[in-house]
Amino acid sequence: xFGSVKKKVDETIGTNDIETEIGKNTIIKGEISGSSNIRIxxxxxxxxxxxxxxxxxxxxxxxxxxxxxxxxxxxxxNGNAAIDxxxxxxxxxxxxxxxxxxxxxxxxGGVFKGRSEMAVKAAEQTxxxxxx
Length: 132
Known about the structure:
The protein is mostly beta strands. It has 2 helices and 18 strands.
């Protein structure tokens, strides 16, 4: 049952190898940093700085800033996010804070309150609109 749900989430933005899982009965106060992918179903009171992907499960709650390659939010995040590639807020997810992202997806029912800034792709910076 959980394998199929996890696989579906993993295929969304490429989080195939979740190395670290924080369970729903776990509370961590402090900074988390690393280079692998992480799934959080518990509570984090502090910042997350991961060069891999971060998945926040439906029971997950984060009170702090997140820096990662990709971020999927099915739970709650209260903090800013700097995401190199894709930020996805699922239908059960909520993110309150400012975000800087490569791409941004919000499913119906997902909540985002804050400011968003998307990276400008190199091709978009050199567009010629023929206004000579």
